[in-house]
Fold this sequence. Notes:
The chain has helices at 2-10, 15-30, 36-48, 53-61, 76-81. With 89 residues, the chain is mostly helical. Mean pLDDT is 75; it is low at 72-84.
Amino acid sequence: MRGADIRFAQGWADEADLAEAVRSAREAIEGREADPTALAWAANALALIARDYDAGLAAARAPPPPGPTVRSAGSSAIRRAAPPTSWRG
């Protein structure tokens, strides 16, 4: 999904790439993917590629899902690989 919007904007994405990007975006939003960065990219794909501006805006405005997140990297894999730690700040 993330690369398809760049290929789309530059004019060298094929229809299969675009369909897969839109399908993945809708799947991430409907399932409320726990990764805020993934949700942001999904909202972008809906607005830019699918031209579904209302759905893209609604996804961008939706509150983030509950639970821990990785704000800097936005990677679910990093979050799953790291052991839980407590924070005392």
